[in-house]
Amino acid sequence: MDDTVRRHKYTLDEDEMPTTWYNLVADLPTPPPPALHPGTLQPAGPEDFAPLFPMDLIMQEVTQDRYVEIPGGVLDVYRQWRPSPLFRAHRLEEALGTPARIYYKYEGVSPAGSHKPNTAVPQAYYNKKAGVKKLTTETGAGQWGTALSFAAALYGLECEVWQVGSSYDSKPYRRLMIEAFGGTVHRSPSNLTAAGRKFLEDPANFSGSLGIAISEAVEVAASDPDTRYALGSVLNHVLLHQTIIGEEALLQMAKAGDTPTHIVGCTGGGSNFGGLSFPFLREKLAGRISPRIIAAEPASCPSLTHGVYAYDFGDSAGMTPLMKMHTLGHDFIPDPIHAGGLRYHGMSPLISHVYELGMMEAQAIPQTECFSAAVQFARTEGIVPAPEPTHALAVAIREALKAKETGEETVILTALCGHGHFDLAAYDDYLNGRMVDEEVSEARFAAGLSTIPPVPVG
Amino acid sequence: MDDTVRRHKYTLDEDEMPTTWYNLVADLPTPPPPALHPGTLQPAGPEDFAPLFPMDLIMQEVTQDRYVEIPGGVLDVYRQWRPSPLFRAHRLEEALGTPARIYYKYEGVSPAGSHKPNTAVPQAYYNKKAGVKKLTTETGAGQWGTALSFAAALYGLECEVWQVGSSYDSKPYRRLMIEAFGGTVHRSPSNLTAAGRKFLEDPANFSGSLGIAISEAVEVAASDPDTRYALGSVLNHVLLHQTIIGEEALLQMAKAGDTPTHIVGCTGGGSNFGGLSFPFLREKLAGRISPRIIAAEPASCPSLTHGVYAYDFGDSAGMTPLMKMHTLGHDFIPDPIHAGGLRYHGMSPLISHVYELGMMEAQAIPQTECFSAAVQFARTEGIVPAPEPTHALAVAIREALKAKETGEETVILTALCGHGHFDLAAYDDYLNGRMVDEEVSEARFAAGLSTIPPVPVG
């Protein structure tokens, strides 16, 4: 028996946790284009967002400050599970026979089992501070609804969640988790909103989409002065909160005495990817490190690699401000793949801008390759990953196998943004040969792209 | 907003993890009575266990040594998730309005989500070392089967799991988790074994029991020289491996600068309870601390508070050696309550002996009180507990509320031995008023007790 004892994780004490979030906008050569008011097509001001968000969050959305202090009340909650561990994937490396060193930052240790509480907690905190009584939101795979329900419970806020219909039907445990934390869950499209009732007129919409669920949650928030809306990805303030991941990982890679040559994160709306990569991008822009930064997106919903860079709505009903982003069209209905959390038609405007600036790459990964990576990871590292980060694992494995061929020194850092305890039906499909890959063709995306409104580029 | 930042967890570095397991037997005034061969009724020797376990584990079962060194290969695996965190439950204390300080050692960070890998890993390690090719086992709630499947994958062993029928039917995600790690799952009673076929003759046995599933797994192991059996609780070597929990907690309580007045653990077969409490019991026997040590068992399967202390079989078919333990009778079929992992007719012989020596107490808790505690815990501490440790949480809350009345200085340490991600159907029942308490009466237990064989007390 091999009795070698290795170091598997690089931890930080609570006291070592960073106390600021990082705002990449401060370090970019040009700022991202502003959101536009959908009526006037003029840049949207803070007052345009006020029915949806408390002013503290709106100010974070538009701040130019490089660092934003994390309030004590948020640090206090973060400190229950943060700093999260950074793992060296020794056993996966062995199984691949690669000389590459693979590290993963694991966010599955959070109460909701993903990175989402990193922003749910400050969002609930600032809403409570502003006197808000209730939060509404949407959830796809269920990670975000769980996180917001948890955060709302801590601050005594009500939480009402519109869960995408297909997810509501196939993931009862996700709904139960949200309810265990005290939240209320509605199947979307619902009869509770004008938007929901309108979408229900067409049976094709019955399975729902994130865009439809957002329309419902936004409508309810906008119509009640005591209620606000919370979004789990896409927006600047959400990505800002998630930078705690990358800031910790920077400190942990230093403890490991290693420097990443590849940083890989999965992208849906972009918050996990931005959270991991932005602090490293700051270091790269400053010339201190030079990693490739790679977004791994699902082949079924590839907004970066197959979308266009244009102004589009964030929701299906066209109620949100217009945002300049890589989009497949706000009416795009993705294939029912398993990585539900990545099935959003658009990409964070900030990440879209960074992509346009040539500061990062993107790869679209078919789902069977993701699950092949997931099973190999589970059986070596012992953690069953959520479907979302398996896209990043697949890219990490691609790069690790390349290193085996080329012998090039390769140090991969990826984000394992959540566990897959509520996604095992997808593993069942994969292990029993019922999973097929997505169709990826121009024809597949033509209908969605045709719905993008003809807005003059800002 | 309250912006106080508190310390929530007491962590240890990998380097600070204890490198020995602790054997309580070395410090007891009298040794526990030996297991008996079911045919001869003479004390069972190592050779009697050899068809089931590798010799390293048999030697650990009977060792008198105070400390057993943890092999490097096991330490290396432990170090992925261990040392596990010790939390201070600040928000639960606030919600209870209690002056008591409540700490919980959290084992849900392990790959399987419970304390079970602490023994699954060394059991797989020693079996691999002995040249074994396949492990068989039973699983009730599913925690143990998941843990053994994970451990077997690491060492390249096959793993075959008999899952109690009612659990197999109601918890498909547990089966899928075992399969994701590479294990094979059979519904028990199965047609694959003589024992299973015999039990299936009576339709009353269709929902299965741990005792039946053990019979099946033991039968398969005993009939194949390349296969051994692994047990997830009850036996001395299992409790030995679990003492890593208490050894770490001792170091962490010292870091917290606090001394427990109450140590509370849930008991099914006893491994989680023994793992937490034995190192503290060592300190108590040495006169260094004086905590009350309390076992929390389910009212539906209360072997300590309603069983008898007698020699009985470990399985339903009567294939195992006879063990002196608190038992409800090896034919006892518990009510179908949700804390499936605690539904074993017997109690670890070592814990039974400690209980007879008056070194600990026991309380039986009805399930609605458990889930009331669970929901309060989830909504304050942010972790949805497995049903098993909610028994201990209920006792912790009882004691914390007593402290509020009496003002007595109370420091409670409990083990949160797993998360409830696969048990949310039970939360659904509780939150929607479908959960009722168990019948606890002499009549309820009479049938089971009558099946205990008339063996002369050793």
Automatic annotation (TrEMBL), chains A, B:
<dbReference type="InterPro" id="IPR036052">
    <property type="entry name" value="TrpB-like_PALP_sf"/>
</dbReference>
<comment type="pathway">
    <text>Amino-acid biosynthesis; L-tryptophan biosynthesis; L-tryptophan from chorismate: step 5/5.</text>
</comment>
<comment type="subunit">
    <text>Tetramer of two alpha and two beta chains.</text>
</comment>
<keyword id="KW-0028">Amino-acid biosynthesis</keyword>
<keyword id="KW-0663">Pyridoxal phosphate</keyword>
<protein>
    <recommendedName>
        <fullName>Tryptophan synthase beta chain</fullName>
        <ecNumber>4.2.1.20</ecNumber>
    </recommendedName>
</protein>
<keyword id="KW-0057">Aromatic amino acid biosynthesis</keyword>
<keyword id="KW-0822">Tryptophan biosynthesis</keyword>
<dbReference type="InterPro" id="IPR006653">
    <property type="entry name" value="Trp_synth_b_CS"/>
</dbReference>
<feature type="modified residue" description="N6-(pyridoxal phosphate)lysine">
    <location>
        <position position="116"/>
    </location>
</feature>
<comment type="function">
    <text>The beta subunit is responsible for the synthesis of L-tryptophan from indole and L-serine.</text>
</comment>
<dbReference type="InterPro" id="IPR023026">
    <property type="entry name" value="Trp_synth_beta/beta-like"/>
</dbReference>
<dbReference type="InterPro" id="IPR006316">
    <property type="entry name" value="Trp_synth_b-like"/>
</dbReference>
<comment type="similarity">
    <text>Belongs to the TrpB family.</text>
</comment>
<keyword id="KW-0456">Lyase</keyword>
<feature type="domain" description="Tryptophan synthase beta chain-like PALP">
    <location>
        <begin position="80"/>
        <end position="418"/>
    </location>
</feature>
<dbReference type="Pfam" id="PF00291">
    <property type="entry name" value="PALP"/>
</dbReference>
<dbReference type="InterPro" id="IPR001926">
    <property type="entry name" value="TrpB-like_PALP"/>
</dbReference>
